[in-house]
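Input record (Table S2, row 326):
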Amino acid sequence: MPETFKAILVSRDAEKKQSVAVTDLTEADLMEGDVTVAVEATTVNYKDGLAISGKAPVIRRWPLVPGIDFAGTVISSSHADWRKGDKVILNGWGVGETHFGAYAGRARVKGDWLVPLPQGMSPHDAMAIGTAGYTAMLCVIALERHGIVLDRGPVVVTGAAGGVGSVAVSILSSLGYHVIASTGRSAESPYLIDLGAAEVISRYEPAKPLAKERWAGGVDAVGSHTLANVLSMTSYGGAVAACGLAGGMDLPASVAPFILRGVCLLGIDSVMAPKPVRMEAWRRIGTDLDLQKLASLSTTIGFDGIIDAAHDIVEGKIRGRVVVDM
Ligand code: NDP
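Output record (NDP complex):
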């Protein structure tokens, strides 16, 4: 009898009604790939919440095992870069969207999609960072490349109590920035101050085309009015790294910050980011993120808690990061 492992499977019926079930799979059920990994840790990202709840069309192949990221150990490989026993991380590349994902005991993927687990980091640590944290690092790198260095002034982080936001606050404060954390949950102020925020502000509603200059740069995980406000208050020559849409996919802004203050909007995508970009982000996470802070911003659940956590994250009820120990 082939070995079975637990998996979450999202299916759709003839009326396109989505259902989610826990099932047993074998390696023969997995999709094509040249590396098979024992999944040791995964996480629940906002996108996983959208996939499991069906609130947005994240899943584009049916049925599908969701879960956009994992860390684990290679069980078998025909890829030149990977051998049995290697510790690896996967983020994105359509895994959990068009390719069977992380919410299963085993995953079979393309070896080109994997990066090595950084030295000194456990699979659990890597998933406490997860795609949200790796994306936060991509945002920080983008701001640095744009010249948003410490003496340019404060940086704002929106959706600060969420996954991307919490890691961005941690990294930026560890690097010495004056971090302004923007949150809709004022009760999370002490948490954000502990992570290193110098100031906590509440979410803004509809933006003016231009407002008083308050920060040199920003990391925005929210979109919509929030991003419009961040842009309107970015100082001359500043930049905002936009990676998320937790508040909406629209951008009700004016061109005023771009044409009157030379502000730049930096788009951040983690899913298809080329391997050297990923390697650099994970290397920087290894050096710039305080692992003790990481522990304080993450909660651990088991496989059985994934579906509930997925619903909670799209309702804005999750603080920081959720790690799943498989
Ligand atoms: P979380 O749910 O953990 O965090 C999102 C935060 O946004 C919430 O905690 C909340 O912060 C804020 N928020 C939620 N709903 C609203 C709302 N209606 N209006 C304003 N603010 C709101 O999600 P993640 O951090 O995992 O992901 C954040 C976003 O980044 C998502 O849209 C996700 O899809 C995107 N993302 C994009 C990636 C990319 O490659 N571009 C990669 C990873 C994530 P608070 O309570 O502090 O206000």
